[in-house]
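Bench notes, afternoon.
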Amino acid sequence: MFVRWMYVRNRVRELRKEYGLLQDELAKKLNVSQQTISRIEKEENSLPAEILIDLSRFFNVSVDYILYLSDYRQTTELAIEISRTMEEGYRLYQLYERMDKTKKKILMSLMNELAKDPA
């Protein structure tokens, strides 16, 4: 954690500023002191797991994003939604692959029609 500490500071400050919050405003929302937020942003404090999780939930970003382990802001909820969508797509693909060429043509034609903009 200490190796990436500088990046944690930057992410917290970036997110706080992105939300238009002062340090004391963020501190109140997380139920910590303004000094705690200041120390986190200045590398003067370690980042306790519970505060890290609270920051993740408040800013709706992944812990990995805050820790600069990822540039994606993806939350757990979004990851679950993406996973479900991919599973559904895979099930459709499996059904499609079981069809003969004639049925595949009919299905593709139907999908093209359904996907057209009604306007």
